[in-house]
């Protein structure tokens, strides 16, 4: 514990810089530690492995605890058909893996597998209930609270509310299309979706984009005002910058989102878009919602997430248990410092 007290550095002494792989490093760390201005004593460390113990510690101490856990990617399956071969860059004659036993895949003879990070642009950490998980590293975060009522997009109810150091936006994660977050109050169901959008609009997440059913509605002054008031981007530009799907739209052209339709029961959606000329519309192949963030992006972003109120994430109890069972090493700690 004496050594632990020597390893905390103020960012002003050794600022973090991000590598090409998205990792944060501190150049000159050894030199900075040798002249570290911080001095404190760690008198005790309480280690917890079960989330109920973490809950009790949060209540008893009324302060943040630390959490370390494995960082994984999840495997998903996508239909490789004549209609999607160009987008997925697959071929039904040689890239096939068995398709999931899901009604949506009933008439699909060929599937491909692809990996995605387990943190969504909604700030939700999730695991694959029926798919593979692969370990890619570890991560440490601060636990600020818990909720037994919040339910994520995958149906997991209850979990820890954590404060993360990651920045929100595009192309900042390990191979993902982007990151997002919410306020702690949002995960506690203390604010509505509309009120949450005023402070944590997550403008680059497709969940936040305005839908309009035809060009007339998309161009309507009423729609524009509603989108502006809701901090919900309306006009989108095709950036076609995805590493997992290609040639969905014409690059640098403007589109509107018509709808997002659930395709299967495991997180895949079909997004349809209207070209700003009104001459045609298109639908992307089945994708995770976050995949669309690197295909389209708002033409103009007027409001970003408030870094003081946002940057909270949700880790379901079920995800913690699944990762612990598969990989182990899910551990929290509380420090007594003087």
Automatic annotation (TrEMBL):
Identify the InterPro entries for this entry. Papain-like_cys_pep_sf
Its domain of life reads Eukaryota
Its keywords, alphabetically, are: Hydrolase, Protease
A molecular function GO annotation: peptidase activity
Q: Which GO terms describe its biological process?
A: proteolysis
Asked if the keyword Protease belongs to this entry, the reply reads yes
Does the keyword field hold Protease? yes
Q: What is this protein called?
A: Papain family cysteine protease domain containing protein
Give the source species: Chrysochromulina tobinii
Taxonomy of origin reads:
Eukaryota, Haptista, Haptophyta, Prymnesiophyceae, Prymnesiales
């Amino acid at each position: 514990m004496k050594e632990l007290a020597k390893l905390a550095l103020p960012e002003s002494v050794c600022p973090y810089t991000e590598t090409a792989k998205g990792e944060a490093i501190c150049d000159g760390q050894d030199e900075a530690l040798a002249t570290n201005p911080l001095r404190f004593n760690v008198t005790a460390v309480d280690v917890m492995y079960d989330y109920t113990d973490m809950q009790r510690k949060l209540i008893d101490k009324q302060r943040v605890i630390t959490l370390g856990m494995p960082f994984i990617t999840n495997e998903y399956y996508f239909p490789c058909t004549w209609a999607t071969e160009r987008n997925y860059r697959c071929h039904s004659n040689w890239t096939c893996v068995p398709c999931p036993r899901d009604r949506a895949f009933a008439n699909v003879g060929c599937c491909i597998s692809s990996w995605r990070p387990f943190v969504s642009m909604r700030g939700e950490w999730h695991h694959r209930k029926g798919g593979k998980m692969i370990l890619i590293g570890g991560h440490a975060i601060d636990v600020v609270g818990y909720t037994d009522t919040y339910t994520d997009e995958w149906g997991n109810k209850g979990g820890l509310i954590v404060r993360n150091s990651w920045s929100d936006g595009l192309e900042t994660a390990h191979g993902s299309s982007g990151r997002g977050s919410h306020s702690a109050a949002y995960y506690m169901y203390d604010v509505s979706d509309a009120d949450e959008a005023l402070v944590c609009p997550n403008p680059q997440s497709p969940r936040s984009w305005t839908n309009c059913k035809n060009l007339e509605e998309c161009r309507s002054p009423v729609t524009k005002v509603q989108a502006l008031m809701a901090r919900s981007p309306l006009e989108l530009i095709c950036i076609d910058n995805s590493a997992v799907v290609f040639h969905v739209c014409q690059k640098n052209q403007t589109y509107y989102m018509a709808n997002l339709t659930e395709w299967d029961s495991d997180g895949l959606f079909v997004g349809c878009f209207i070209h700003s000329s009104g001459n045609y519309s298109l639908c992307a192949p089945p994708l995770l919602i976050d995949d669309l963030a690197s295909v389209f992006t708002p033409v103009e972003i007027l409001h970003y997430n408030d870094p003081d109120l946002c940057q909270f994430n949700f880790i379901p109890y079920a995800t913690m248990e699944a990762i612990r069972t598969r990989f182990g090493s899910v551990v929290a700690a509380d420090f007594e410092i003087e």
